[in-house]
Amino acid sequence: MVLGRAFALTAMLVAAWRIPPIVPPDGAAPAEAPASVEANTPPGAPAPVAPVVPAPTAQVPPPDTAALDLLPQVRALARVAACSPGSEIPARFNPQVVETHCKALASLHEQWTKRWLARARPFLEQVVPADLPTRVVYPFGGGDL
């Protein structure tokens, strides 16, 4: 645990060391402390810190609020990665590679069904109430996941 914290601290310090200095926009010179402040600083005291001058903010365009239609991408992902039946393999994917992947996934699913689900189902049938709803309502929007 201590080694992990030491590594994290070292990584942050190395990252901070490599950050380039902040250059003011438009080649403006950085703000200097007034001469009267420097003259009144006793010898050996730390140098005064210059006041922070906020940079002018750029005008940010309003966000595009039009809804995105992601259904084609979701269908392609479902067919190619999850091997869902009922749709064609998109042209940009090699059908032989997709079919090989789907055969491997089907084999894994079969092993899971035989090794785990076949053992768990009798136990779950005893524990789970028969009148339990089949639909779960998740009360959060997913931002907590």
At a glance:
With 145 residues, the protein is mainly alpha-helical.
Structural class: mainly alpha
> What is the tally of beta strands?
0
* Major beta-sheet overview: none
Shape: elongated
Following the backbone from N to C, one meets helices and strands in this order, namely HHHH
Rounded to an integer, what's the Rg over CA atoms? 31 Å
Strand content: under 5%
Please, how many helices?
4
Helical proportion? 40-55%
| N-C termini distance | 26 Å
Overall mean pLDDT = 78
| Poorly predicted ranges | none
Structure commentary:
This protein is an all-alpha fold. 44% of the residues lie in helices and 0% in strands. The protein contains 4 helices and no strands. The longest helix has 33 residues, at 95-127. The radius of gyration is 31 Å and the shape is elongated.
